[in-house]
Sequence to fold (413 residues):
Amino acid sequence: MKYYLVAIYTFLSLGILGQGIKMTTGELNAFKQKIEKETQALTSIQTDFIQSKHLAFLSNDIESKGKMYLLADGTLKWAYHTPNQYSIIFKNNQILIDDNGKKSNVSGGNEVFNKISHLISGSVSGKLFNDKEFDVVCYKDGDEIVAHLTPNDKTLKKYIKVVYLYFKKDESTVSKVRLVEPSEDYTLITFVNKQLNVKINPSVFNH
Amino acid sequence: MLKLIQVFSIISLAFLLVSCKHLKVDGKLIKTNEEKFIVPYFNVENKDYLFSTRIKVYGNEMSGLLAVKKLGNQHKRLALLTDFGNTLIDMEFQGEQVKVNYVVEDLNRKVIINQFKRNFQLLLQSEYIVKDVYEVDEGKVFTSKFQGKKIHLHVNQNENLTKLVQANVFKNKNEINYFKSLEGSDSIYFTSHQFPIEVILNEKIK
Fold:
């Protein structure tokens, strides 16, 4: 019986159930410092993304595609081109929406939108990983490090149960983000063709 | 006093007759053996239905996605999502029962939820007991009842459903118009005549 318990404990602590091996406090701090140092040098990120929305009752995930631009000052454009033309720009405390040609502005004082902007830009750059608004636990899983971020903020908690940030080994920006909702449905965003520190034409952020 | 009551009764009756006029089908009543009318939308079991969605409510507009699946006989599930992918509302319809699995806190108000329940139940309803059938210029009109209100189902000469009207004694409550594009995708326009609510659905085909 004792051997079974030891075997089960070993099985769980090695993370064979799928989430990898939990990082020690020392490893976590070293990883956080590395991310912080490398993201401080970032001037821009330009990337394509594929978004898969998983709803438990559907047979297939719902896929959307688009492009994301992020500047070091937090200016962000998140633009879908498939299936809908929809973009949202966070710039100078302004939120600019282009819904298939129909343009609108939202006050920058909108708490939910500010949280969303912070969540998106922080996820992509990896800065979220060092955010005090989240409890962070990290796991090593093969060539990946997966950060599990549980929000402390009550506004975010209404929308997000946990955020998983996936880092490829030797990369300081995330390759995938999985946002799990309180209902357990989730959105997986995979970044492809990612380019760091490229010059982004300012007209990209025009409304 | 008696005269006053008589005048009031005549005015009320006249008002009721004028009010009821909208319910009258302008066509010829025909005999039919059809007991049920089947709405062909959201009615294939285990198929994922996905529609780009635009909702106009009290002057506000939002776009997103509507996902629907028929899980079994008279059992359907629906989720309304933002373009970002967040679930706003997740509901299940089984017979006359409506279960709310999830609703985002901002929409979690009894009045809003009840409105969503009634409107989405009408949108997803696929089976109507036929009361009468009328022949009209455009095709036929089948009459039925749902949610305690009259239903008129308009079909064209090709037997395709083009419009559903839900009405009570006094006025039209809701209207759903159905369109098919040249590519074969479906579009559905839901209009409430009680509240400033409009829902435009365009089928997403892979």
